[in-house]
Structures are given as C-alpha cells and as structure tokens.
Design goal:
CATH class: Alpha Beta
Main location: membrane
CATH topology: Spore Coat Polysaccharide Biosynthesis Protein SpsA, Chain A
Order of helices and strands: EEHHHEHEHEHHEHEHHEHHHHEHE
Keywords: Glycosyltransferase, Signal-anchor, Transferase, Transmembrane
CATH architecture: Alpha-Beta Complex
Structural class: alpha/beta
Radius of gyration: 23 Å
Strand order of the largest sheet: 1-2-5-4-3-6-8-7-10-9
GO molecular function, one term: alpha-1,2-mannosyltransferase activity
Shape: globular
Number of domains: 1
Organism: Huiozyma naganishii (strain ATCC MYA-139 / BCRC 22969 / CBS 8797 / KCTC 17520 / NBRC 10181 / NCYC 3082 / Yp74L-3)
Subcellular location: Membrane
Largest sheet: 10 strands, mixed
Distance between the termini: 41 Å
Number of strands: 10
C-alpha cells in the first residue's frame, strides 16, 4: 500500500498513508565543538528570575488542580465539547500482543468495513513487548488510516514496590477456579487499562478513543460518525452495561467508598449512585460499564479526580491481591462524577467479542445497515447474549 514508516522514538513507530513528504520526521542536532556546548549551557543556565517564575507556575498549577477538584466532569472536558461541529480528535486504541495477530486482523477488517473506511480515524496499537515486523506489516495492510505502534513503559506493566509479590502469587493460586483468577498478565492488563493507557504519549493529541479488542464483531454498518455524535451531544462515554463477577472484587466497593468519604469534593452533587447501588451506597449491585466495548473521552481519566482515585486503589493493592477489573473501576469513578445516564437500544452500535452480543430488533435497521442477525449459535456464551441489549451513554 505504499506505506511510509518513521521511527519517532525507540518505542514508537508511525505508519501513514500520507505521501512521504507529508510524514513527520524526527530531527536531532548536536553542537560541533565542546566550546559551543559550554556556551550554550551558560546561556541556558536558569537565572533567579527563572527560578521565581518556575515556582510561580508550580503554585498556579497546584491552584488549578484544586480548582479542578470542584468541577464536574462536564467542566473538565468542556474543551472537547467546544469543538462541536468540527472533526473530533479521536482514535482507536488496542492493547494487543504479537500472538493475537489473527484475532486482531479479524477485528480490524470488520471495523474498517463497517465504520472506519468511511471516517478514517487513526489507530493506535500498544504492547508490553516490541511488535514484530510481520505484525506491523500485516496490520498496516488492513488499516485505511494512520497507524501508530507504541511500547508500554515497563513501570506501567510491572509490580510497584509497595506490592507484596508473594501475597499476590498466593492470591492467584487461591483464585485459580475463577475467571482469569490465576492469571498474572491479566492483572497487569487490568491495572494498565485502569490507570495508564491514557498516559501513553501516543494518545496525547487525542480527546476521544474507541477501544477495540481482538475477535470483535460489528453486526451492522455504522453510517454516522460516532465520535462526532458524542462530541456534539456532549456525551463522555458510550458503552454496554453488564454485571461484574463478585468473587473478583470483594473489597473494591468498600475501598472506593472509603476514598470518596475522605474526598467528598470528588463526588458530583447529582451523581449516579443509584446506578451502582440500590441502598444508597451501602453495597455494590455489580453493575458496570463494560470496558471491552468502550468509546469515551480521554479526559474522563486525565482529570485530577480520577487520577487521585486510581492512585488510592493502586496503593490498596486490589489489582494484585484480588482481581479488580478496569471496567468496575472506570464505572464507579465515572458514575460518581457524572450527572446523567441514558440507556437506549442502539440501532447500529453492536458490542464485540464472544462474551456479550447485541443485535438490533428493528427490521428496517436490519435491512438498511446490512445487519448480520445474531443467534444463540453464534457464541458458546449464550447466557450473556441478549438481542437488543442496552447501550448506555453517560453525560458529564
């Protein structure tokens, strides 16, 4: 396809459909002599005024963060909504390994066919190990837009120094009979998706993302720009709602409520506690927004409130001492910082993978959107498959 690649950093590769003269390049330069370097160092040495300015900027940043605490999610992400009517700064994000190439290619083909061939949004692939050349080549052949490959920093995919790894190993042994309960890598994934994916520098330029997993299916054509709709209708996330496995999160709710009791300033006045609990927060009803199918504002997770919440959970150790998932973590934070929830049967947005499936009921939609009807024979997990399952939108 005539792709051009540029190594921007050791851990980042960008592939673009643009002509070679349009592809950004990294340029480095060095002084030709030691004297030049010394002169440059003297010129760049901070003055007393620079130091005072730096301290002033730090104080202003601290004040801004404190001010942001009092803002609703709407206030924090309103800069995204201010772009109304213009093309959203959006991308697809996929956390994937080289060994999952075939399942990924299947997902790419269906997303391209049903949606992205029309709208050409960038696609970012992240891995805790370097992508192979074959992987990159095969992926680039399928994507119609700009492709970016990124390596996850080791500190984002490893044990922090405050985690007892022996205790974590004991937990995995005890939870071996629970779904993903015995998996170490799954826990790193859940922690990464909860607190780090949105910090990767490849995502810095974007405001919106659509998470795509290997082996995703879209059963209908999507003939409207989902990102544009979210931006213009001031929706911060669109997802599917299901229940969590209780055995994987025995203390997540209590830990979360302890955090919000310590920091009531992080809770919106008109929040969505009723979505999470039927007894005013005493217990968790296990409802959550399923993050395997997640289209959302990146600023939800960039906000000071969410960062503080994640740091608190991370210190508590439940990602490793239990099996806390990113879906309930995202859900609790978003619901308590948001003020409106709308649940609707989407005519075109059809969730992915083999665990949960949705199919529109409207026969007109089935015909116009070239829908492939879903039957119970489609998946071995038919107990979690519902025709016309609710798609949830969350307003800031």
């Amino acid at each position: 396809m005539g792709l051009d690649q540029v190594n921007l950093e050791a851990d980042v590769v960008v592939a673009s459909k643009a002509p070679a003269d349009k592809v950004p390049v990294a340029v480095t330069s060095a002084s030709s002599t030691v004297d030049n370097k010394q002169e440059q160092a003297l010129q760049e040495a901070p003055s007393v005024q620079d130091f005072i300015q730096e301290k002033t900027e730090e104080q202003q940043l601290e004040a801004d963060l404190k001010a942001n605490v009092k803002q609703t999610t709407m206030d924090f992400i309103k800069k995204d909504f201010a772009n109304k009517g213009k093309r959203p700064k959006a991308c697809f994000v996929t956390l994937v390994r080289n060994s999952e190439l075939n399942g990924l290619l299947s997902s790419i083909r269906i997303v391209e066919q049903r949606f992205n061939a029309k709208f050409k949004y960038d696609w970012i692939f992240l891995n805790d190990e370097p992508f192979s050349e074959e992987f990159k080549k095969r992926v680039q052949e399928e994507v119609s837009s700009t492709v970016k490959f990124g390596l996850i920093p080791k500190e984002h995919w490893s044990y922090p120094d405050y985690i007892d790894q022996s205790k974590a190993a004991d937990t995995r042994a005890k939870m071996a009979d629970i779904i993903y309960g015995g998996s170490e890598s799954y826990r790193h994934m859940c922690r990464y998706q909860s607190g780090f994916f949105w910090r990767h520098p490849l995502l810095d330029e974007y405001s919106w993302y659509w998470r795509v997993e290997p082996d995703t299916q879209l059963y209908c054509d999507i003939n409207y720009d989902v990102f544009q709709w979210m931006q213009d209708h001031e929706r911060c996330t669109v997802t599917i709602t299901i229940h969590e496995y209780e055995a994987t999160i025995p203390t997540l709710w209590k830990t979360s409520m302890n955090f919000f009791k310590e920091h009531p300033e992080y809770v919106s006045e008109n929040n969505l506690m009723k979505f999470l609990s039927g007894n005013d927060g005493e217990t968790y009803n296990l409802c959550h927004f399923w993050s395997n199918f997640e289209i959302a504002s990146l600023d939800l997770w960039r906000s000071p409130a969410y960062r503080a919440y994640f740091d608190y959970l991370d210190r508590a150790g439940g990602f490793f001492y239990e099996r806390w998932g990113d879906a309930p973590v995202h859900s609790i934070a978003a619901a308590l910082r948001s003020q409106e929830i709308r649940s609707t049967t989407s005519p075109t947005l059809v969730p992915p993978t083999h665990l949960t499936t949705n199919c529109p009921r409207d026969m007109d939609v089935l015909q116009k959107q070239r829908t492939v009807p879903v039957t119970k024979g489609t998946t071995s997990h038919s107990k979690r498959m519902h025709a016309g399952q609710n798609i949830t939108t969350l307003k800031a």
